């Protein structure tokens, strides 16, 4: 198919330019057509003025003309500049090119037709145009006006004109053959433009009305195929194996609950009830457990694991980091081993001989609970009768990774996904498909709320002095930075490396401190984390690696540097690392950005301790894309749809998708549509 050809098959694109296209993730002609213009910045050349109509108010205006003369001139002060004199049938104008702009002169020749955007004022010899953006057009285009021109994201040395020319060539191929990618019935019912019309109009719109229709079509198409993929994938998994039934809670489970070092909160009891009933059903559980940081999800996972063991099966909990795996292993061992269950830890750093022993026992069914990182989905890990799969902090795992773990079971295992990322309910439903959701609101009682303070960097010295006082009082401190080191493009932000160096030789000269970040080796990270958990390290200068689940109750102060660079929900999660013990804890947000909006935004965090509310604020302020990277969820990127903004369409698309997935004939239409897509991003969900 022509759309799978490399971009170098287009005229004017050689291997060197292809590299620039690659930076935009454009490799094929189809990718190029999927590279939609920046949606809010088309240039409206449809109102091209005659030169005589240009006002000399120094405002930017568009006009067309023919090159009459090119000249190089020299100013009184001796600097040279270039002038292009253009004419149309009404008047002349002079375009001034200064300094670096002058290099363009070599592209121009008298007689060429130009389209010009520039600031126009009255000059000595007629209208004078500066800051001009000049495009050479052929005479037909100039005569008809250029209509509405796309503005594309650029990379490397690419120019707008080059992308436009390339897209035009690609569109010419599409004119000859372009299969439809939405069922005809949907197009007719929703009154959408056909694919070719939409494609033409998203790149070179005939009018803004046509552009709008084109957008609507592609938004619908993306959301529809996304939903078809998700629903299909889930049905497919559900059908392939039998689920299994757990019995009602028995003696073992009652003993585990009774021995917990605390009484379950109401929210925990409610969540446990829901999970327990799911497990007793023969239909496999697919449940998302959302609970704010510190709401006590680990205990719930322990109960589910105990229940599966009580029924003679195995359970596995997969977490994204070694540190977290270690902590869960310790907690779960404490809760479960006294009741005769065997809990083992499997991570990348487990020694070979130990690993071999674990794998053997796992396969023999002698291990009840396996706690681990990605190491648990490696090919040689085999269970005896895996019936429960739990992932913690789910947003770090993709759909495919979870499926890989489930595939290690001869049954359709019960699945529990625990996350502290508060996702608005509608969004969760639509993006996770038909997952059931349990929400644990609130936290175990008796915790003091964390006091949150926001300051500008001027206060830094007194904040650091406060840090030293906390340490002297026997407590521990996190200092969290947005960047690891300056190589990450640390323009104005204080990187962790920098802050660590600075503190180590000043405030923390006599205080044991350490640097911890994601670029370090796992072993090194673990060592530092162990040191901090053991209280040997007093101050940890770190990044968001710390976000996930670490539990050090003696830490009472968190300082977040460049707080304006973080999302509110993210800082809320970070903040959850303190306030885990009995002492009053503090979170200090520092920012060097003194724009009025910044402190206001940070104060939202000071005033609220509700992760769901904060997530919604984030959505308002930053849009879905940032908070909710689809790719992190193992889902394809959307080029034009926005799952929040286009929520209404998403819901409609979902309803239609349900119909299409259930009907063989209709499903076949979808399969064909997937095949004719310019890329395979949706196809991948179907066949993953
Ligand atoms: P998260 O939901 O963030 O994973 P954890 O499971 O780590 O939360 O629990 C946070 C802390 O709260 C732990 O120290 C845990 O022992 C404690 N905890 C959990 N449930 C209760 C409860 N019902 N009462 C008192 N403390 C609890
Ligand atoms: Mg947790």
Descriptive report:
This protein has 688 residues and is an alpha/beta fold. Among the domains are: 43-149, OB fold (Dihydrolipoamide Acetyltransferase, E2P); 245-281 and 296-419, 3-Layer(aba) Sandwich (Rossmann fold), CATH 3.40.50.300; 451-608, Rossmann fold (3-Layer(aba) Sandwich). 40% of the residues lie in helices and 19% in strands. It contains 23 helices and 20 strands. The protein has a seven-stranded parallel β-sheet with strand order 10-11-9-12-13-8-14, with helices on both faces. It has a six-stranded parallel β-sheet with strand order 15-20-19-16-18-17, sandwiched between helices. Strands 2-3-4-6-5 form a five-stranded mixed beta barrel. Strand 12, helix 13 (399-406) and strand 13 (414-419) form a beta-alpha-beta unit. Helix 7 (208-240) packs across helix 21 (647-662), helix 18 (568-575) crosses helix 20 (611-627) and helix 21 (647-662) packs across helix 22. It is globular, with a radius of gyration of 31 Å. The two termini are 23 Å apart. 40% of the residues are buried. The model is unreliable at 625-632 (pLDDT under 50). The structure holds adenosine-5'-diphosphate and magnesium ion. The site of magnesium ion has 4 residues, from helix 10. Residues 262-265, 268, 291, 293-299, 420, 444, 549, 551, 580 line the site of adenosine-5'-diphosphate (ADP).
């Amino acid at each position: 198919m022509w759309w799978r050809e490399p971009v170098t098959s287009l005229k004017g694109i050689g291997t060197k330019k292809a590299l620039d296209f690659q930076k935009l993730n454009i490799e094929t002609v189809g990718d190029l057509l999927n590279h939609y213009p920046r949606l809010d910045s088309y240039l409206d050349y449809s109102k091209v003025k005659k030169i005589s109509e240009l006002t000399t108010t120094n405002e930017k205006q568009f006009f067309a003309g023919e090159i009459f003369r090119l000249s190089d001139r020299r100013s009184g002060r001796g600097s040279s500049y270039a002038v292009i004199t253009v004419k149309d049938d009404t008047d002349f104008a002079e375009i001034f090119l200064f300094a670096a702009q002058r290099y363009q002169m070599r592209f121009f020749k008298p007689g060429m037709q130009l389209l010009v955007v520039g600031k126009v004022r009255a000059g000595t010899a007629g209208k004078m145009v500066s800051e001009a953006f000049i495009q050479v057009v052929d005479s037909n285009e100039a005569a008809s006006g250029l209509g509405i021109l796309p503005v594309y994201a650029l990379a490397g040395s690419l120019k707008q004109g080059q992308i436009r020319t390339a897209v035009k060539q690609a569109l010419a191929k599409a004119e000859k053959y372009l299969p439809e990618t939405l069922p005809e019935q949907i197009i007719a019912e929703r009154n959408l433009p056909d694919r070719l019309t939409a494609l033409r109009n998203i790149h070179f719109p005939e009018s803004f009305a046509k552009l709008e229709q084109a957008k609507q079509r592609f938004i619908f198409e993306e959301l529809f195929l996304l939903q078809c993929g998700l629903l299909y994938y889930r049905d497919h998994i559900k059908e392939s194996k039998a689920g299994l039934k757990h019995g009602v809670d028995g003696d073992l489970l009652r003993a585990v609950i009774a021995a917990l070092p605390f009484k379950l909160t109401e929210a925990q009891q409610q969540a446990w009830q829901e999970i327990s009933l799911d497990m007793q059903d023969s239909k496999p559980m697919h449940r998302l457990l959302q609970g704010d940081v510190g709401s006590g999800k680990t205990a719930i996972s322990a109960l589910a694991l105990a229940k599966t063991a009580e029924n003679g099966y195995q359970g596995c909990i997969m977490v994204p980091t070694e540190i977290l795996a270690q902590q869960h292993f310790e907690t779960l061992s404490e809760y479960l081993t006294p009741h005769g269950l065997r809990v083992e830890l499997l991570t990348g750093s487990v020694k070979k001989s130990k690993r071999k022993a674990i794998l053997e026992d796992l396969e023999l069914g002698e291990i009840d609970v396996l706690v681990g990182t990605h190491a648990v989905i490696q090919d040689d890990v085999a269970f005896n009768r895996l019936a429960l799969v739990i992932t913690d902090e789910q947003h770090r795992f993709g759909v495919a990774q979870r499926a890989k773990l489930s595939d290690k079971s001869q049954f359709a295992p019960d699945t529990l996904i625990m996350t502290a990322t508060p996702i608005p309910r509608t969004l969760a439903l639509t993006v996770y498909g038909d997952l059931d959701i349990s929400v644990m609101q609130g936290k175990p009682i008796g915790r003091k709320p964390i006091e949150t303070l926001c300051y500008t960097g001027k206060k830094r010295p007194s904040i650091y002095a406060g840090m030293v006082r906390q340490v002297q009082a026997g407590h521990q401190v996190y200092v969290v930075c947005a960047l690891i080191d300056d190589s990450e493009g640390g323009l104005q932000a204080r990187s962790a490396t920098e802050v660590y160096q600075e503190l180590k030789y000043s405030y923390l000269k006599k205080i044991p401190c350490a640097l911890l970040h994601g670029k370090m080796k796992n072993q090194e990270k673990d060592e530092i984390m162990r040191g901090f958990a053991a209280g040997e390290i007093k101050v940890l200068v770190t990044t968001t690696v710390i976000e996930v689940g670490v539990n050090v109750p003696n830490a009472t102060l968190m300082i977040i540097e460049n707080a304006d660079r973080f999302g509110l929900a993210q800082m809320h999660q970070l903040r959850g690392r303190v306030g885990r013990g009995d002492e009053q804890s503090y979170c200090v947000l520092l920012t060097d950005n003194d724009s009025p909006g910044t402190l206001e935004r940070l104060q939202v965090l000071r005033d609220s301790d509700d992760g769901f509310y904060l997530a919604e604020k984030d959505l308002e302020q930053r849009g879905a894309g940032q908070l909710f990277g689809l790719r992190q969820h193992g889902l394809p990127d959307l080029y034009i749809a926005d799952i929040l903004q286009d929520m209404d369409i998403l819901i409609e698309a979902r309803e239609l998708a349900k119909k299409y997935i259930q009907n063989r004939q209709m499903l076949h239409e979808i399969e064909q549509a997937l095949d004719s897509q310019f890329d395979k991003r949706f196809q991948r969900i179907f066949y993953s």
